[in-house]
Amino acid sequence: MHEIRIAEDLSAIVLEAAKQENLSKVTMVNISFGQLVQIVPAIFEFAFRESVRDSIAQDAELSLEIVPVKMKCAVCGTDFQVKENHFACTDCGSTDLKIIHGKELFIKSIEGE
Amino acid sequence: MKNILDRNQNKADEVRKILSSQKVIMVNIISSPGAGKTTLLERTCEKLASRFRIGVIEGDITTDRDAQRLKKYNIPIVVINTEGGCHLDSHSISKVLDSFDLASLDVLFVENVGNLICPSQFDLGETFKLAVVSTTEGDDKPAKYPMLFREARAIILNKTDLIPYTNFSRQNFITDLRNINGSVPLLEVSCTKGDGLNEWFNWISGQIDPPATSVASPLKGG
């Protein structure tokens, strides 16, 4: 249920940005979440709707992109996508890895008028 | 690109700075409800409270029952009731930090709310996360909650004494865990029977009080 808290923080940021830009209406919110964050999109959408209710963002469309997990091998430098929870370099087999993608909780853009 | 949890992250960085300046390590303990976090803390206090100055933050949805269980060790304990919230965040930690005399602590254990997903997303300002999982929950937890098992500095597998009464496969558990995190230390214990606890005491003691780096290398620091 971390979706609720993340949706609340998102709506606070959206409304603050809309105020700064003097928007009268927010029409679109583009976000990307890493796969490891395990957000359930339907629950997130519901939580977001509740947190922007009766605000200028109440009709905003939510565009949610889920980013697959991508790692970089610290030994041989190979970048690879993690499949089926297998966190080992696809080239040399090392498990000494750095995360590149998969933990994002990003707002890409906010649109309005 | 803006991180949605920036507010939590900034506060966590603040907490980390305060703890580091006071030389206190903070351990964020994450598990399902009933995996044995409080029992692990009981055993740890019994064994190590005379050696290290221990403090505890008890995150609980409601009640202070876990804190009551630790009172007998005469250590500073603060309860955070999340009133339904499924995880602690850095703001709730920051608010209670003043209740401790940090200068007279070596380690602050945070018992997070019992849950494997939500607490993994919220940095509290901890030095590291510790995952506790028990055999009665089944052997599929690493595969289902990869984030926690990637991020934890060590994994405690508790209730090993109950394996004969469950369908827990140690081999499946270890295979899944090693796929997700090839190098994380796995400590297999029974907090009620005592099996494996010495390894845990040694490991956590090494984290609180790392062995001094012996004779300085002539190549370093010229």
Main attributes of the structure:
heterodimer; A: 113 residues; alpha+beta; hypothetical protein PF0899 fold; three-stranded antiparallel β-sheet; elongated; B: 222 residues; alpha/beta; Rossmann fold; 9 helices; 36% helix
Topology:
The complex is a heterodimer of chains A (113) and B (222).
Chain A lengths: L1 H19 L5 E9 L6 H12 L8 E7 L2 E4 L5 E3 L15 E5 L3 E8 L1
Parallel strand pairs in A: 1-2
Antiparallel strand pairs in A: 1-6, 3-4, 3-5
Chain B lengths: L1 E2 L2 H16 L3 E7 L5 H12 L5 E7 L4 H6 L6 E5 L8 H8 L9 E5 L6 H4 L6 E7 L6 H4 L1 H6 L2 E5 L11 H11 L5 E3 L8 H12 L14
Parallel strand pairs in B: 2-5, 2-6, 3-4, 3-5, 6-7, 7-8
Helix pairs in contact in B: 1-4
The residue ranges of chain B in which pLDDT falls below 50 over 5 or more consecutive positions are none
Low-confidence stretches of chain A: none
Provide the gyration radius of chain B in Å. Answer: 18 Å
Beta-strand level of the residues of chain B, as a percent range?
15-25%
Q: In order across it, which strands form the biggest sheet of chain A?
A: 2-1-6
**Which whole number gives the mean pLDDT of chain B?**
93
CATH topology tier name of chain A: hypothetical protein PF0899 fold
Can you summarize the main beta sheet of chain A?
Answer: 3 strands, mixed
Give the N-to-C terminal Cα separation of chain B. Answer: 43 Å
Radius of gyration of chain A: 17 Å
| Class from helix and strand fractions of chain B | alpha/beta
**What's the overall geometry of chain B?**
globular
Query: Largest protein interface?
Result: A-B, 23 and 29 residues
End-to-end distance of chain A, in Å?
Answer: 32 Å
User: How many strands in all of chain A?
Assistant: 6
- Count the strands of chain B? 8
H/I helix tally of chain A: 2
Main sheet: strands, sense, barrel of chain B: 7 strands, parallel
Q: What would you say the CATH architecture of chain B is? A: 3-Layer(aba) Sandwich
The tally of domains of chain B stands at 1
